[in-house]
Write a structure and sequence with these properties.
two-stranded parallel ribbon, two-stranded antiparallel ribbon, DUF899_thioredox, alpha+beta, 3 helices, globular
Length: about 80
């Protein structure tokens, strides 16, 4: 599948893979599965995200789950990371 064909549901609607970069030169994607992922495995991702910001790199969390489910998961665990 061409990179331009990927679509992700987010807080402002559907975005492309390129839009996930949000102006950064690099992108790190963490794939999580709500109800199966351990929260601690992603909680440390917030620290990683802060470190990556200084390197013009953005960290996002993606899931095959519907956006409403992953957003609920993000709020429940208090993550300050973008989810799609």
């Amino acid at each position: 599948m061409p990179a331009g064909a990927y679509r992700f549901a987010g807080p402002a609607g559907t975005v492309t893979l390129a839009e996930l970069f949000d102006g950064h030169r690099r992108l790190v994607v963490h794939h999580t599965v709500p109800d199966r992922s351990r929260p601690a495995a992603v909680a440390s991702a917030e620290e990683l995200s802060a470190a990556l910001q200084t390197r013009d790199t953005r960290l996002v969390i993606v899931s095959h789950a519907p956006y409403t489910k992953i957003e609920q998961y993000r709020r429940h665990f208090g993550w300050d990371l973008p989810v799609y």
